[in-house]
Description:
The chain contains 24 helices and 20 strands. By secondary structure, the protein is α/β, with parallel strands linked by helices. The strands form 4 sheets. Strands 10-11-9-12-13-8-14 form a 7-stranded parallel sheet, with helices on both faces. A 6-stranded parallel sheet has the order 15-20-19-16-18-17, sandwiched between helices. Strand 12, helix 14 and strand 13 form a beta-alpha-beta unit. Helix 8 crosses helix 24. It is globular, with a radius of gyration of 31 Å. Adenosine-5'-diphosphate binds next to helix 11.
Amino acid sequence: MNLDDQVTVINGVGDVVASKLAKLGIRTVGDLIDHYPRKYDDFTNVTRISQLHPGMVTVKVVIKHAKSRYARRGLNITEAVASDETGSVRLIWFNQPYRADSIDNKKEYFVRGEFQLRSQRLSITNPSVELVSDFPIHSARIVPTYRATKGLKSTQLRKIIANLLPNIAKLDETLPEWVVKEQNLVSHSRALEKLHFPDENDDIELAKSRLGFEEVFQISLASLLNKYENASHNSVSIEFDEVKAQNFVASLPFKLTNSQRKVVWQIYNDLQNTQPMNRLVEGDVGSGKTVVACMAALMVMNVGFQVAIMAPTEILARQHAETMTTLLSPMNMSDKVGLLLGSMTQQQKQNALSTLSDGRTGLIIGTSALIQESVSMNNLALVVIDEQHRFGVDQRKKIVSKAGTMPHVLSMTATPIPRSLALVIYGEMDISVMSDLPRGKQVVKTELVSPNSTDKMYDSLSKQIEEGRQVFIVCPMIDENNSESYDSVIATYETLRVGKLVKYKVGLLHGKLKSDQKEKVMNDFSKGKTQVLITTTVIEVGIDIPNATVIVVLSPERFGLAQIHQLRGRVGRGAHKGYCYLVLSDSNQPSRRLRALVENHSGFDLAELDLEIRGPGAIYGTAQHGVIDLRIANLSDVKMIEAAKNAAQQFIEKKEKLVKYPELQRNVSNLRKVTNLN
Ligand code: ADP
Ligand code: MG
């Protein structure tokens, strides 16, 4: 049996079970082995019959007098007597007539079920029965529970996986021997065996630390290899013009923050190298990343090369174009700024494309329209990817490929990534953190609101509107194609427009509107023509409306903490204080996660908390890192992460050959595709 074989090669797995397994994403034997337990129950405790108390129990018994009978229509009862050396107890099953014939009254069994009062007698009801002479998997041990699906229970998965144990035991070691030794790891096969069927609790820990180390080692190796490959390319060295930089800074209507100065300096250093820059700027919402990008662009244009800035939405791209035009006008460079959006007319696009390809445009700003076939650049030397986590790997690669040689790449994100996680998933990038905000910490006052007491909230919201301020109401729409949540933003709009907000001008914004409609809605709101904007998360990124002071988030349970933090960063950006109301979807006690938003105003802290409570997927969308498999690794374990990274570094320094380790090679090459920019 091979790991790549279809699950149907396994005894007892036919087409029906295979189709259920497919629903869990399991197609091959390897997938099945990688279907790790979701949790464990400790059923090691075997009770003597004389010591039984009501509740779930396991006994070790011989079973006699098993008899099945029809009590009445539709109800079959099977009874038996189980005994150990201390006494006897009745076993009773409902509608499982096959039980009577499947029991051998000379053999010993583990029996597990609920000990309870049934027809005036204490009995063990609907118990599982396993031969002691077999390898017990459902009782008398630490029992794994698996993520299951309709028609395929965890107990069945347990059986199927237990059948694979002999195959698991034969699996080759996947890591180099020296790594296993130095790190004191258990072998690959033993780890998998014990992860599924641990003998004791310590086995689980040992298995997890081995497999977690392996996950991080593989990613580290992939990103190091990418990093070296990237460094082997040549980019244009961008000469630093100090006077230009000083003039630009002097022309700004504000003083740069320390973070901005530090990061711009790092970027200018990178740009002077012929080694391509690959830097990620991580800065909380409002930390002023746009100016930083503009200063990078300035230096590149100054020596006659082109810059492309790609933003995730048209609204944001337009806003960037306006900002850049303004910022660059004192340098007499505003006519160098171009815009390319999917929604532009054919004529507009043609103009943009021709000034881009002949080099009249020095700074092109756009959405993913920039990666269309028809776009050709003259001499692109710097690519800026704003809100980079919103783009897929392919999109990022495509924009980079628009340059003749490898361009410098600057990625920006407002999603704060905890350091330990960043070390893992951004291994091949240099990271700059913008830690201070321009106007100090402007805390957006945040409140949790129970769904049946929103009156007070609407009162204060009305008060704000009457004072001239503006309001966002955000409905959860995670997937734009999900019609159920699509309705909710419209339903909310229709209800509020004629209800609580009848006195005000209300706008509606969501991803399914046509581009020019979106534009109009956004424009109306930013010009103050509408007072309330009912919207999906399309407003999440970037949008700068200084007059907006209130944001209401409906069903905040459905959002990540970092995402809500970004959303509330949309308000209180001007002179007035910002307020955020999180309207819970039910009146239960709010979760620890949501309560943290009230107290905590650091994007980084919130990201750490989300990482701890919900795992890396919550912070880092699975879309981008679908292949990056961090199911086991404890990502708060900075020591382990550093050890894994060191081992990966050594692997390269020792000039180890990946071909010697087929499984590692396969995983690393998949991972490189997800992260590589080349
Ligand atoms: P983000 O990091 O979220 O992209 P922006 O670049 O949009 O932040 O900046 C947010 C706001 O702060 C903008 O209105 C910008 O003009 C302003 N800003 C940026 N840098 C400074 C600064 N050093 N001092 C004052 N205001 C600044
Ligand atoms: Mg921004």
